[in-house]
Structure formats: C-alpha cells, structure tokens
Specification:
It comes from Lentilactobacillus diolivorans DSM 14421. The protein is mostly helical. The chain has helices at 3-10, 12-20, 22-29, 34-61, 65-87, 97-101, 107-118, 125-147, 174-186, 191-217, 221-229. It has one domain (3-229): Heme oxygenase-like (Heme Oxygenase, Chain A, Up-down Bundle), CATH 1.20.910.10. Bound molecules: the ligand Cc1ncc(C[n+]2csc(CCO)c2C)c(N)n1.
Length: 237
C-alpha cells in the first residue's frame, strides 16, 4: 500500500465521525442557527487565508517544476475563491475584507492553523502537503456523502459542501495529484518521515471534526475565559 493509500485508509474513522457531527447533520437538515453559520463563515475565511501561506510554502519547497506549477495553480484558485467569497454578502452577514481581517481567531481555528503552519519549517513537501491536503480530501468526501442524503433545498444549506469547482475532482484533479506527489516524495523519505507525514494528515482530519464542533458550540476565547474565571468546567470543551 502506498503512503497516500495508508493515509486514506486510516482516515476512514475520522471521515465517519465528521459525517456524523451535528454541524454536518445540521447542514443536511437545515437546522443550524444564523449564529452557528456566521461563526463558521468568519472562522473559515480566516482559515483559508492561512492556507495561502501554506500553499506559498509548497511553491517554495516544491521539488520539481511540475509540482511548483501545480501548487501555483492551486494558489490562484484559492485567491479567486477568497475574492468571490468576500463579494458574497448574505443579509445575515454583512462583511468586508478589513473587518474580516480583524476577526479574532478562535481557539480551535488557532490550533488547526498552527498545526498546519508548523509544517512549513520542515521545508519538506512531504510534511507540509498532508497538513493541507487532508482538509481538502475531507471536504470532497463529505461532499460525496451529502450527495447521497436527502438534504434541505434552501440556501445557505443547499450550496454548503457542494464543491462547485471541477478542478478538485477526478483523476487529474488537485486532490489526486496531491496524493501522487505525497507518494513520489515518500519514496525518497525514511520510514520515520513517512510516519510523521501520515500522523500530520490524520491530525488535520481530527481538527476538522473540532472545527465543526467549535462552530456548533460557538467556542470562543471569551466564553473560554468566562468559563475559566467563573470556575465552570462542564459543557464547553
Ligand atoms: C475547516 C476547513 N478545512 C479545510 C478547508 C479547505 N477547503 C476545503 S474544500 C476547499 C476548496 C473548495 O471550497 C478548501 C479550500 C476549509 N475551507 N475549511
């Protein structure tokens, strides 16, 4: 089994857990509150800006011209998606670039961003790429799962996790090529490096679950602070 096949196989329990999460079920059933949706939207835009830094690192440390061109294409797509996202202004969520730039990064988002950013210092595509590819893989798999569910037909639920862009999918799509690059790099790496790369992939899958959970429960530094300072130890995390 190649390293990427091992990653995907071992990530199956995480995928199932993500599918079952009440936030994902809430997308299917249209039962999420405007506050839950807004929290997710704000945190996720900030998360995707952080991904720009990770993709930039992949461009820097790519080991072939083909890799660098692929990562460059992915960066362009990321920036286009962010531009379009900022242009969309649902009534429930007026926003602009400047205010989103000042959105506080809440605890789980910070943990996930730092988990990804920490791989940059390895200067190694094999270590950096899995931290980023895992989230993309998981969203694609969740999109496939949602396709087979009877889901509410109203926005914003209808488009949630519906991957509009075909560039991600199929044998020449980004995710397939990312896995091929992981396998290509794994051949040059030690067993320990391969295990580390796999652990990074699985940790991203785990943090995806916590990203839904934080959105569902509205986990913030403020409510963490008041829970700590009032001595509550129960329901938040
Ligand atoms: C928590 C979280 N994890 C991963 C992604 C990344 N992501 C998933 S699908 C996709 C491309 C199409 O939107 C991107 C960039 C995200 N946005 N939020």
């Amino acid at each position: 089994m190649s390293l990427s096949e091992e990653m995907i196989t071992e990530a199956q329990p995480y995928l199932t857990a993500n599918e079952k999460h009440p936030f994902v079920q809430g997308i299917i059933n249209g039962t999420l509150s405007p506050q839950q949706l807004r929290y997710y939207d704000e945190q996720d835009i900030a998360f995707e800006y952080n991904e720009v830094a990770v993709i930039n690192a992949l461009i820097n440390y790519g080991t072939t011209t083909d890799q660098v061109q692929l990562f460059h294409k992915r960066l362009t797509l990321q920036l286009n998606m962010l531009r379009d996202w900022l242009k969309r202004e649902p009534d429930s969520m007026p926003h602009d670039w400047k205010s989103l730039k000042w959105t506080p990064i809440q605890p789980i988002n910070q943990l996930y961003r730092q988990h990804m950013a920490a791989t940059i210092q390895t200067h190694s595509v094999l270590q950096i790429l899995p931290s980023f590819a895992a989230g993309e893989w998981l969203y694609i798999e969740l999109g496939k799962y949602l396709k087979h569910q009877t889901r509410v037909d109203q926005e914003p639920f209808r488009s949630f996790l519906t991957l509009g862009n075909q560039d991600f999918l199929g044998p020449t799509g980004f995710i397939q090529q990312f896995f091929e690059i992981i396998d290509q790099e794994a051949e040059k790496a030690s067993i320990r490096e391969q295990q580390q790369a796999k652990a990074t992939f699985l940790k991203s899958c785990l943090l995806e679950w916590y990203f839904w959970d934080a959105s569902y429960k509205h986990i913030t530094w403020d409510n963490w602070q008041s829970a700590a300072l009032t001595g509550q130890t129960g329901p938040l995390l």
